[in-house]
Design goal:
heterodimer, A: mainly alpha, MetI-like fold, two-stranded antiparallel ribbon, B: alpha/beta, D-Maltodextrin-Binding Protein, domain 2, nine-stranded mixed sheet, 21 helices, 49% helix, globular
Amino acid sequence: MATLEQPLKIKPLPVRKAHARRTREDYLRFLPWLFLSPALAIYSIVVVYPMVYSAYLSLFRWDGISPAKVFVGLQNYVTLFTQNEVFWIALKNNAIWLVAALLLPTSLGLGLALLLNLKFRGSAVFRSIFYFPAVLSVAVVGLIWTWIYHPDLGLLNQSLSAMGLKGLTRNWLSDPRIAVYPVIIAATWNAVGLPMLLFLAGLQTVPMDLLEAAKIDGAGPIRRFIHVTFPLLRETTLIVLAITAINALKAYDIVYAMTNGGPANSTQLLSTWMYFLTYNYNTVGQGTAIAVILFSLTLIFAIPYIRLMTRKT
Amino acid sequence: MKLPYLRLLLPAATFIAMACCVSTGTAQNAAKPPIPSGNVTFSLWTIAGQPFQVMIDDFQKTYPNLKVKWTKYSTDEMKQAVRVASAAGKMSDTWFNWGGSLAAPYEDGGHALELTSQLIALYGVDKNIVPAALDLARHNGKLYGIPIWVRPMTIFYKKSIFDKYGLTAPQTFDELEKVCQALKSKGIIPVACGGKFSWMTMRTTDFFVEHFAGPEMHDKLFALEASYNSPEVIKAFAKLKEWVTKGYFNDGFISLDPAQALPLLQQDKAAMIFQGPWIEDQNIIASHEDPSNYVPIIAPADQKPVRVSGFQEQLQFWTKAKPDEQKAALLFASFITTPEIAKRHIADFGSPSSVVGVLPPENRPIASQMAKWLQGGVGLYLPTDQALPQELVNAFFQAQDSLVLGTLTPEAACAQIQKAVEEYKSAHK
């Protein structure tokens, strides 16, 4: 009879069976990777490889055309930070752009969404009208606003003159001290549609009974918004902020269309300056170094956004 | 540093020879270029607005087994596409390009096919193309493309405005300034300019440098053999600033799109513009206006030899193209620069043509006038953005625009360019 002191005699499993189970487990573990592999392969080729190759190119002095690339280590980064004045202008403009993008399209989008969420006749038409700028190509938006800001023939200066405010007329895109702001306004006009749409979608998820309960408790529209609606829009707001921030760092075409980075490079962004250095001025190494810096900055906003989206999923 | 393609003096004899001495018969005597057998499709990349369709149709009709796969880009997309393709090792069989420093990297990098004397003779390049255009196209004494057009750039004035105010076309630099003063006093913008991309302002800057520094020094500046700190260049930059201060350009011109400058003349708000012959078809005739109301004059630099800004436009060929595609591409370029073909399509294909004996049609007064200048011995100097290495073009643009905006003095602007030149020279020893 076995006692507690006596060791338990455990009959080992047959080796063949354990091996079979491991193989099956291994198979199941790798199965998702198998299904993912076509997408991963495509992603690696069209996204990962170009990114890594760009980072690699940032370590060379190269005109982008000749077969010879000269390895210079981190010299391109040093040059950007110590000698390239336009890089700092672009970095500053990116910061201004980012702050403006987080404030203007987000708050305007929320305001419009709150208004358009009200039940009134023709609300669908107004939703379309306010979303309309977002469906225009940025090149068209740039063209429209370039004409609006035209110093002699533009709507803005002519309207100001007609209202007796000639003193306020400006060469809006020609003054390097202010030129970036008119471009931001044009970009805001184009960008406000997406936050508006996301907030509108978010507002549909706010339970009516909560709002009605708050109303019965005597809360006015502003208190209902502050204490009920806005807290329930938290996740939507975070998504809007993350998307807006990423889009702000990616901004390129509106500047290219409206000012081409000028006058005298005063409206350059990192993205436009990267393009100019790479494609116009034969300094691929410095251009790709900016790409790496821009990518790193974008990650600051992209990682929380991706984590949020993943957690939500 | 020596950049042989900057030797741009185009003596009268070459252009007179162009029009008079060379006949289509001479070209026909040359050995016939090889025609690929079997069906061959080759790729052609050009800028969207360029009227290649008429040539492609005729070529494909003449050679039914050869097909052109034509891809069109905007100007900047074109530069980007060719650059990316060269880095990827998969270029178009033939592509449109400018000359000077815009083409040089492809030529030095071994991407653009060198037209050896054998190829030049085989495809009739030496017989069909005016020597001046070939001079503009050569890089280090070698030819890497077949020129199609020659584009002088100069001052145009609107005749109806000049007539209205009793003004005559200026013949000297002083007269030009007096005309500007007179126009300004009448409330007319003397010179319309769209400086958004900096190159339209550059045309005026180049003209001032030509006036103050003279042709020899201007070429030396381009070859980086003279200093931008020299008093002549500083005077040129000071003159640019003076014109800005006096309001000789339209308000806010520095950020205006070049496409928005000509409308100022069309609306009688401005009287002159620094432009090229392409405005005749693309803007004036397209707007149903009379091209004879827009008169090009030789920008009065008061220098000898007489020169205006200008460049050639060419087709280049990929070194590594498959033999049949390369032959077909060369045959296409040779075909469109054959005098009888070029003459047949001159009205549609644009001018001034680089092809010998091919003059613009009568109903193209601007192109005709420019062709006459070239035949009469007016030379061309490359614009700065084609003459200077591209790494330096930004420094030039930045200094020029900063001067216009008042953030740099003429001395500081010139010093900034020269500093960039020194850095470039030291990096490319």
